[in-house]
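Hi R.,

Here's the chain you asked about this morning:
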Amino acid sequence: MNKTTFHRAIATLAFALLACVCWVAAGLVSDRMVQQELAASMHVEQQMAASIVDNTAQIIASDLAMSRAIPATIAEMDMIQLALAQSHTSASETAATEAERRTRWLAVPALTRIGNFLRNARGFTGLDYVWVVNGDGFCVASSNGIDPSSFVGVDMRARGYIQKALLGAFNETYGVGRTNGDPGIFIATPVYRDGFLVGAVIAKVSVDRLRHWVARAGTFVTDNNGVIVMAHESQLENRVMPDSPVLRMSRAERLDAYRRVDFRTFRITNIGERVRMDAPWLPPALSHAFFAADDSTAPSLYDERTGLNSGLAAHIVHPLPNWAEIVSNQRRDRLLVFITALGVSLLAIVIAVSYLRERRLHRATRHLADQLQSANTLLSAEARHDALTGALSRRYFLDTLRREVDLARSAGVPMSVAIADLDHFKQINDRFGHATGDRALEHFVRMCEEQLRASDGVGRLGGEEFGLLLPQTALADAHTVLERLRKCFNQEHCAYLPDDTTLSVSIGITELSDGDTAENLLKRADLALYAAKSGGRDRTEVHPADSKPPVPRHPETA
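And the predicted structure, written out as tokens:
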């Protein structure tokens, strides 16, 4: 071997060794770079997923808190307690058929009045059904008492939530209606009379009314048995999470609760180790956060919120939108760094590319951070104000009410709360359309802003029902102010309605007393509102804190 050949062999070996070292070094550098990019991206996406699932959980808790208040308030009414105390099921009634029991109980005046009351209450509370069960487990009055599919006379002892209520336990559960097959949330409240359990009040909220819980992509809600009761992707509904309690229930129990016995499992598995086989540069600390739904191979983030005081849990499966780009970047970066280390002549180009790439990375990170901030700002605005009327949202109004109760109690100053409901609002929607009805709601909020102080609060509780908060205002002064508001609203014509059409509002008012909570104030204001409705509408009614609940008039008389 001559000298030239030897030198060529050494040069070739050195070049090959240098290329191997540069390739390994390029791999280490590119892995570090892509890990930083992935960490920044995952941090932003995890914050966004957590924000969405937290907002879903808050909406669920707020909606269920309002729904619980309705049967709890009805259970405290004297006419309900007295009728249940007198409605024991005799042996002859137990042996009678369902139709015979229905005919007999629909003829009882006291139960007829309760049925009419429940039918009217269902109309302005947003509930689908409200019914009353006596201590023997038979439905004696219902909001659909006059319908062919009435619950009156039905033996409900086999229903689990009825059994718990008749044992004195307040409970709520997801289930499927046995009559119409409509799924919903059942809320059961025990009723006591003179310390004795005499029956229960049950309310149902249909799942269709609660679809806003899963308005965001990837979100779904499970019940305490692990069944997906609601999902943004409807094909996931009635599937179950792995190792859920429903899989350990008997066929009879599944059929009783869900009207079905077979459930497909919805698997959310950690795919971090599988992804690391294809992307060995992925750090274990980040791979633990990689999940996939069912047979999907795309990495996603998974988050959930349990313990919502309802047995429900909010979940989200949030795909990583830029995973494919990150994988592609890792391969490209390794080649670029290799070329940079291997060729000094390409150093300037590689540095420029790396610099531009780092700038793009930071710009993308800032862009994602700005998007997150904008999303949080939008979510905060949506949570504070009603999009249609500009009034406070129901949840924010309730939070404000609780704060004002604490301030008024600590400062020793009076405070009044009222609930206003636009009269015959459904007729306005039916005659002139929902767009005109929306303008009527805006007209009412504008009148409130003109007649009330800047420190007072107006919140939309739902539909045409509004909450009015008057800090540092005694009951008599509040009655004067709100009576003026009622008259002005009735007298000032809404420009979107015909000249011969007038609007009116019914208002129920109460005042804070020692030991009161925000929920107690709303209950009394709601009772006063019902008295105003029963008394002929277009009026204000006052319910002092130390008085007995008003006895509503018979609906036909009203």
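The longest helix spans residues 3-75.

Let me know if you need anything else.
M.
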